[in-house]
Amino acid sequence: MNAALPQQQPIDVRLMNTTATVLFAAGAVLLAAAFSWWAVRHPLFALSGITVEGEVAHNSAVTLRANVAPQLSGNFFTVDLQRARDAFEAVPWVRQAVVRRQFPNRLRVRLQEHQPAALWGPEGEARLVNNFGEVFEANVGDAEQQDLPRLSGPDAEAPQVLAMHHALVPLLEPLDLGVSELALTRRGSWTLTLDTGGVVELGRGTPAEVMARMQRFVQTLTQVTSKYARTPESLMSADLRHGDGYAIRLRGVSTAGADAQKK
């Protein structure tokens, strides 16, 4: 028995169905366009305010809105969120901004501020480095009360300099010494300034090599200074760039040398 073939609709019916589909789609597009035109121009959706959340220790919400609002254009539907984000992140102390629309006519922004870990660069520059090792510009006076150390070096090496600082601090604590400044030259040489004013030339090398020299130094410094009736606080300068030892100068002592391998 032969299977029955499906019957095709007459061509005029198919044309009517296609036309109806096209007309329906065109109507939907026109309706959407009309709604968009209405929404873009309706005063209900004109931006009426910005809600600021998150960290605002260095910037008040009122000041932030006043600085950013004039840079925004459009309404709830047309405002450029990326531009709004850039405007907020251009404000001093703002590290990151997340901007969202809040129906029907507001923006909501959540801010993350830089958490300063150290002053950055030569004295007088309005730059700091945050706890992520990122260099940023801000009013240094707002951070001076935190008694921050001063770090310096190529901007791209800021994370490495911050990491070295974090490694040196606990190493010096048993000697009751602190880090006042740490500098990395473009040639890769490290210089440490203690909170007592003493200067330690750490030299060049990988972080592991520099730390190995520093560990050898702190493990023997008390023994060396005691021979001259001094304490580590009397250190004026130290040069750790020698292969088998270091040289030091102490307050009240003309010259002093130390062979770290023998101590």
Within the CATH hierarchy, at the fold level, what is the topology of the largest domain? Rossmann fold
- The parts where pLDDT drops under 50 for at least 5 residues are 256-263
Count, helices: 5
Instruction: Tell me the count of domains.
Output: 3
> Which structural class do you get from the secondary structure elements?
alpha/beta
What's the alpha carbon Rg, rounded to whole Å? Answer: 33 Å
Oligomer: single chain
CATH class categorisation of the largest domain: Alpha Beta
State the end-to-end CA separation: 108 Å
Q: What is the H/E order?
A: HEHHEEEEEEHEEEHEEE
The biggest beta sheet is recorded as: 10 strands, mixed
Summary keywords:
alpha/beta, 13 strands, single chain, disordered C terminus, Ubiquitin-like (UB roll), 263 residues, 3 domains, Rossmann fold, 3-stranded mixed sheet, 10-stranded mixed sheet
